[in-house]
Amino acid sequence: MSVFLSSPLMHNIFAGFAQGIIYSLVALSLVIIWQSTHVLNFAQGAMAMIATYIGMTEIDRGIGYWWCVIISVVVGMTLGGVTERVLIRPLYGKPEINPIVVMIGFLGFLEALAAAIWTSTTRNIAEPFSQIYFKSNGHLVFLSSFVIFQIVLAMGIMLSVAALFRFTKLGLQLRASALAPEVSRLLGVRVSRMLTIGWTLSAGVGAIAAVIIASGNFGLFPANMDGIFVASFIAAAVGGLESPLGAVAGGLIIGLTEQFIVAYWSPDVAPLGGIIILVIALMIRPQGLFTKNTIRRV
Amino acid sequence: MIRVEGLSVNFGAVKALRNVSFEAPTGQITAVLGANGAGKTTLLRTISGLVSPQSGTIHLDDVALVGMATENIARLGVGHVPEGRGVIEELTVEQNLRLGALSSKVNLNEGLEEQYARFPVLGERRRKYCATLSGGERQMLAMARALIAKPRVLLLDEPSLGLAPQVTSQLMKAIRKLCETQSLTVILVEQNAKSALRIAHQALVLHLGSVVAIGDASSVADDEDLRRYYLGVVVT
User: Fold this and answer.
1) Is A2-284 CATH 3.30.70?
2) N or C: which end of chain A has fewer CB within 10 A?
């Protein structure tokens, strides 16, 4: 058994899983924002990157890792709420392309700002758990405490997001506000508050993801979320944008595909993996693999 | 009671409502009649705060509604069933009803049971997505969703649109019964003047944004000129 677990095949599966779970985390934040506002936030990664810089550089001042994580998440949530109020709110009722364009511009602005403040040099942030692979009977098993932590965290967030939208009054109001703002207001739902809450929650989950990413081998630099955002966006689209389970499954599919392309073909073509999966998914189930109902206004 | 005084609404150069005044008494149905473009829907949307008037006032009892946010007007007990019904197709029947109950203080489970008793078909389909409902079922859901919050005022925009005549007549009877049993103030916008006048206590006829007649439903129904020129009812 332990020989099998340390085989190259299992190495690739575990490595793909570990990468995929990161995509899943970012994809979950995109599911929240889509479910609650029907906007796709292209600056999601950059906003989370800024939150990570602000929170995690506190480590330099001797503040403990987990406190810095909390600071990052609070900063991320605040940034999300403020962004909605200041940048997005004036665009309601305008063509749907407008928030997309504004957020792409905001992405560039945030990355330049981060480089100006903290330079473009990659910073390494101490990981909260060991990244040394486990050993079983003298054979390496390509899993570490850090990967287990990531998996548990992603599952926890997935279940929380699913529970939020399925079982809570807040989740129902968030969804209704995105689906039918006018009807929701006629029913007494405070739609503008819901939109702010949606951005806040989504940016909070994004910040958690960014902290985990920066804490791993990847490090923290102004553009560190760019590639991950693209893969996560594809993961969320493959999963259907409405399903937390779909976001996690989408992330894992993309992570595994990329890892197998790296292992059996070439690292240079790895980003193609996500695109191929997206094209196949759009051909088979354009509404997403995990979306129940087929109606979608885009 | 809803009291509207001197209400004018412009959309750019178009005058949608011109100096409209009327009272909708508590426990009565006020039918708002008129052809397409008469301003009927605009009137309801202005009462709900979705449209801001250029001038005029709207009072719910003693509370001024103009300038108040739509969601706050709804929370005061103004239920609005919009044109096209406005059920949220991506949600289930029960989720739509829960949404209707959220902003009021009613007990959710009691409210659901009451609505399922009133509209048994909704109980049967409570877990179905609304996209699968028929036109009549959607209308029932839209009504139930407004009623579950126990509103004081119900604004109904073309409830008979797209319904079979028999269903329309059942619906109208149900509205009348609700009005009487729950002392609900109902403002009923209808193109189907005949069926609306049958259940309404009073009627208001709008033409190009102006009130051309107001009075008892029976006197409006008996006025041959009104019927011929404004209501499109064939005089026999």
Assistant:
1) no
2) C
